Amino acid sequence: MTMHQLRTAAVRTGSILLTLVLVGSVLAFALIALGPHVFGYRTSTMLTGSMEPGIKPGDVVLTAPRPAEDVKVGDVISYHIPVEDHRVETHRIVEVKHTKGGKIAVRTRGDANDGNDPWVAVLDGDTVWEMQFTVPYVGQVIRALRTPFAQKYLFWGALGLCLVVGMGMIWGRRETEDDYDTALDTIADELDPSYALTFARNWLELAPLRITRTLSAVETRDAEA
């Protein structure tokens, strides 16, 4: 493989990687930052393996509101647990109860856990957030980007990638210019150096006329011309 082919392959690889990173970043931003405001859903990242194999650690869980009175056994919901730090938990409902005050309470369990959660959660408000689907691995990427190492070096890594792609484009243009020089060198070697210069001069002189005739043919739809 020649140096030109190696540089071309490197530029294409860098361009593809940069495009994938940009597209992935835009999609993740749209899903997590814009989507909840536009479509009214919520997102949360699964931190444990309590819901495996359906929901794995690092998966982003997308939930949508539904009337609390419609919940039933088997639904997977996200809610604030009534103990400790009141964190958001995403577990499956195994029992539905009605309190004396007319509210709905649920007992939940993680699919991978041996027993039920040690609490009964009273659902606040008239709605509950039910899981619709998950997006694999996105949460792991978000958590990784929040680490001090990523925040410190991500900018420089992205800048370096942009520089590599940019230099590759410059090299590509230089290779194109070198191709033109090689064509004239070939004519000079096979025929005569003075003829190569004459050929180049005549080509440049006729170029404006050829462009004008081509434009005229396109405007008049004259295929033969």
Helix vs. strand class: alpha+beta
Name the overall outline: elongated
- Poorly predicted regions are none
Cα Rg: 32 Å
- Annotation, overall tally of beta strands: 7
Q: Roughly how many Å apart are the termini?
A: 42 Å
Written as H for each helix and E for each strand, in order along the chain, the element string is HEEEEEEEHHH
Proportion of beta-strand residues: 15-25%
Q: Helix proportion of residues, in percent? A: 40-55%
Widest sheet: strand order? 1-2-7-3-4-5-6
- How many helical stretches? 4
Q: Biggest sheet: strands, sense, closure?
A: 7 strands, antiparallel
Mean pLDDT: 81
Notable characteristics:
225 residues, alpha+beta, 7-stranded antiparallel sheet, 7 strands, 51% helix, elongated
Please, could you describe this protein's structure?
The protein is an alpha+beta fold and 225 residues long. Helix content is 51%, strand content 20%. The protein contains 4 helices and 7 strands. The protein has helices at 3-39, 138-145, 148-190, 193-219, and strands spanning 42-45, 60-67, 76-80, 88-98, 104-109, 121-122, 127-135. It has a 7-stranded antiparallel beta sheet with strand order 1-2-7-3-4-5-6. Strand 4 (88-98) and strand 5 form a beta hairpin. Helix 1 crosses helix 3.
Write the layout of secondary structure elements.
Layout: H1 3-39, E1 42-45, E2 60-67, E3 76-80, E4 88-98, E5 104-109, E6 121-122, E7 127-135, H2 138-145, H3 148-190, H4 193-219
Helix pairs in contact: 1-3, 3-4
